[in-house]
Amino acid sequence: MGKALAAWLMVAGALAATVGPKDVVQAAVTRVIVAMQEDPGRQHTRPEIRKAAASLFDFDEMARRTLTRHWAQRSPQEQAEFVRLFTDLLERSYLGRIESWSGEKIVYTSEVVDGSFASVRSKIITHRAEVAIEYRLLQRDGRWRVYDVLMDGVSFVSTFRGQFDRILQQSSWAGLMDKMRKHAISAAPQVDRAPRIASTPR
Predict the structure, then answer these.
(1) What domains sit in the chain, N to C, each tagged with a CATH number?
(2) DSSP 2
(3) In this structure, are residues 63 and 86 in contact, taking their beta carbons and an 8 Å threshold?
(4) How far apart are CA 148 and CA 56, in angstroms?
(5) Which one-letter DSSP state was computed for residue 96?
(6) For residues 178-199, b (16+ Cβ closer than 10 Å) or e, as one string?
């Protein structure tokens, strides 16, 4: 493990119980990017990357939000398998996006806290464009974790919800699970990469 990654692991561990939402996001994103830069093939740092993602995302909450009314119709065993498959899908989606912007400048522009909910806005600045990224977080048991990510206003949860709902209407629960097992679901919302001004805050 590289020295830079080890240092970020120590910082993240020391601050985990006291940091605010922006610190949670920034620490996890930096941890992922450092790991990717030190090991582009992810052969040795993949477990650490998954730990960073697990510390950032509330996978159970995101899974429930993508299924909406369908969630309550599933058995506990079906829900557990869905969360596992959705976690893999989200990791591939989010990490794929972050990896494509590795080495670019990331600026955290705002943090808004409203009770147990929070929003952290950032932007990735490349030589061609600015991509606005908003993390929406929920505090539970004293911890801030992300329940949705918006890239240029495109919500991961809403995108997956639309895909899942269409599959369930056209096929069945078994059909949805089969597609998820085979990685036959689009792993990321489409984001306009053309030069643009970052999205106006709400």
Answers:
(1) 57-181 (3.10.450.710)
(2) -
(3) yes
(4) 11
(5) H
(6) ebbeeeebebbbebeeeeeebb
